[in-house]
Hints:
2 copies of one chain form a homodimer.
Chain A: H1 4-14, E1 19-20, H2 23-28, E2 43-45, H3 50-63, E3 67-70, E4 87-90, E5 97-101, E6 106-109, H4 115-124, E7 127-128, H5 141-146, H6 154-157, E8 164-170, E9 176-180, H7 192-196, E10 205-212, E11 214-215, E12 219-227, H8 230-242, E13 249-254, H9 255-264, E14 275-283, H10 285-301, E15 306-309, H11 313-332, E16 336-339, H12 349-363, E17 366-368, E18 370-372, E19 377-378, E20 381-384, H13 389-408, H14 424-430, H15 433-446
Parallel strand pairs in A: 2-4, 3-4
Antiparallel strand pairs in A: 1-2, 5-6, 6-10, 7-11, 8-9, 8-10, 12-14, 12-15, 13-14, 13-18, 16-20, 17-20, 18-19
Amino acid sequence: MIKEAIITDLQRIVGKENTLTSPEALKAYSYDGTTSWIEEPDVVVFPTSAKEISEIMKLANAEKIPVTPRGGGTNVSGGSVPIQKGIVLCTTKMNKVVRIDKENLSATVEPGVVLQDLTMMLMKEGLFFPPDPQSFLGATLGGIIAENAGGPACVKYGVTKQYILGIEVVLPTGEIVNLGGRTLKNVVGYDLLHIFISSEGTLGVITKAELKLRPLPQARKTTMVVYDDVSKAGEGVFRVLENGVIPNKIELLDNWVINRIEEMMPMGLPKDADAVLLFECDGIPEAVEKETEKIVEITKQFGAVDVRIAKDQAEADKYWLARRAGFAAVFGKAKTVMAEDVTVPRGKIPDLIKICKDLAKKHNVEIVVLGHAGDGNLHPAVLTDITNKEHYDRAVKAMDGIIEGAVELGGVLSGEHGIGLEKQKFFSKITDPVVVNMMKNIKKLFDPNNIMNPGKIWD
Amino acid sequence: MIKEAIITDLQRIVGKENTLTSPEALKAYSYDGTTSWIEEPDVVVFPTSAKEISEIMKLANAEKIPVTPRGGGTNVSGGSVPIQKGIVLCTTKMNKVVRIDKENLSATVEPGVVLQDLTMMLMKEGLFFPPDPQSFLGATLGGIIAENAGGPACVKYGVTKQYILGIEVVLPTGEIVNLGGRTLKNVVGYDLLHIFISSEGTLGVITKAELKLRPLPQARKTTMVVYDDVSKAGEGVFRVLENGVIPNKIELLDNWVINRIEEMMPMGLPKDADAVLLFECDGIPEAVEKETEKIVEITKQFGAVDVRIAKDQAEADKYWLARRAGFAAVFGKAKTVMAEDVTVPRGKIPDLIKICKDLAKKHNVEIVVLGHAGDGNLHPAVLTDITNKEHYDRAVKAMDGIIEGAVELGGVLSGEHGIGLEKQKFFSKITDPVVVNMMKNIKKLFDPNNIMNPGKIWD
């Protein structure tokens, strides 16, 4: 419990109206998108400038009070849960889009801007910011950068770090620094910018960011490809890519997910399919047309049993709504869902799917496969019930097997969710101790008193 | 001068045949692409494995001997000059392409692979590695990564760091570590990979890299756009981009460069033009056609006096040969050429050109402008003669003005060449001391005895 005097100091810095200590408020800021961990902070503050954040950090550093930065709180690895109590520093009142620079194809934003709000503003200017985490309706840019968020569109456009030209960040010791800049090319000393991207809020508070944008594609086209064998769907992904077609999205839904979606809201998905792939191409209309033709040709050649090109945007929207409904379908059907975020080299997707199937059989649990097949980032989910110890233990073993299998295939533990609290057990097990030590030393360098989002990434 | 016993140890590690100490050899490894600095090492070694490099580093670290890593030696900021003598560690015998993975669109390479060799191998597989520094005929992948090299194609494809999925690196203390991986998405602790990319060989020796590839474009088309005012050419760049067309390359040649090229080898460039822009579009044939039409339309609308679409690849090749000849033309026409690498937000290109023109007038020196206009990375060059002190002093003042001007426009000191020895003066002046200190602390962390390419980036 922090001292009353600290609360008074915080009130002085950000104003009384921006300092919350009521039990309801503390409860509201005690969890994130996982809902697996709950811990109430001592106080929640809503600073409105980098200067205020600097003052907060200096105070917290002097008093050794944990500070957990938070935006929309939509993250799914426990990253914004104040596990060691202290201060939750919420950036949602710093939500200005400072500048949209059409000439430079860039935008300057504050960390509390919600992705969807930015997307709508950019659309009016004929621009877009490619990273598209599926929490876009609530996720804020600060968190998107801190977690290096992904999403379906990474197949063609890459992940968040490829769209961050520069940031302003407040260090745990209170200094305000600018890293990177406003240009596409920038080789001026060590790339400190990227150390902060995906640092999960453990190294500082991002207070401004310069985003790289792209012109809004003129056309989009969605194709649904149906398979009677999910492994063939896995192969379909890299067959399309190796033939030189790079769609904007390639998503996979397996039979179980398809049927749960159809139960929730009938969409016309093929219920007897073992899996479907959803492709979206975007760009100049002529290119989109050509790429879509090529997808039809290649997937038919490599084992698809049916291919449907969405006849218009309304039909396309239906498929993508189904895709987003996929997660809801999974989470609604079991008491406990262990959803993972493993990523493998794209050619290994059929192997990963086979591993999941074998593990489901071996441990007698339901394993559902959906996710961003186009970049090898699947979200296999094990359905279980944490109150049924015997079943839950089997589910844990199955999940351990999935992660070990993915790593053996040349993959990684997390593609876009981060380690947070959720994957610490695996992180320490899988990562080279020399590398972990390098990371910990950097943490010590920037945050000598370990006040910045403590307890995350490693135990 | 290092002890004889050290040479014997090195011979034991890499073999006698891979240890050079003859005066001719030491001279050959005493300079880089700048030729502005010359310093002979004590010994040159050619290791053939990460294990050998690890042993070399342990020896050098124990004995506190400087180690300067080097590949093709084509870099242009003094980065591979062994300014504090010691060991030059040359990676050119580690030149295997270990794997080309078509399914994952990736390749595993050793650091000594020459970019052009890789390009030829990938072409056979219908693939390419986008970064294209103009030293591609000699530049090796290790150096390309260590300098985060750019090139003309960055307008559409981005810089080297966007194509490195993972590296194996030998630390100055001898540990061999793997950073990153083989997947597109990867959020597993701090992004140490990017600290090594653009670290200019000061943090470790890259011994293997996993490169992200793209399918080879099916079509290309080159368009030359002629302007009677170089500032209008600058404007042309962002007018094209803001209209949603992203060519692969947009290069600028000013009147002076055009005329020197035509003197060297008549190419049919318009000698009375104040500037030309060269555009290349690549991709699916239909899209390339459409984008080229759009470039013609937009540039005519914004002040172009003539637009020529290359009728075939032969004509296109001629223009691109002219572009590459541009640098030779500049360097052949003055005793001393101060060539810079500043980068500004794209919309600021006309302002940067104006600054160059004003400085040329003010200091009565010739300033030539060419470079990668598409990403704001210009290479303004001041022509002078280092033996004529009075003229040289004026040239230095003009160059200082260019750099200050670029930074004031929101730009950076170096877009793709790195700081090395060449830009140290400006680096310290322009970079926030807090940030420099963060960088120096990371250097100390990884290289406690300062043996790894010492004397670079900062004094």
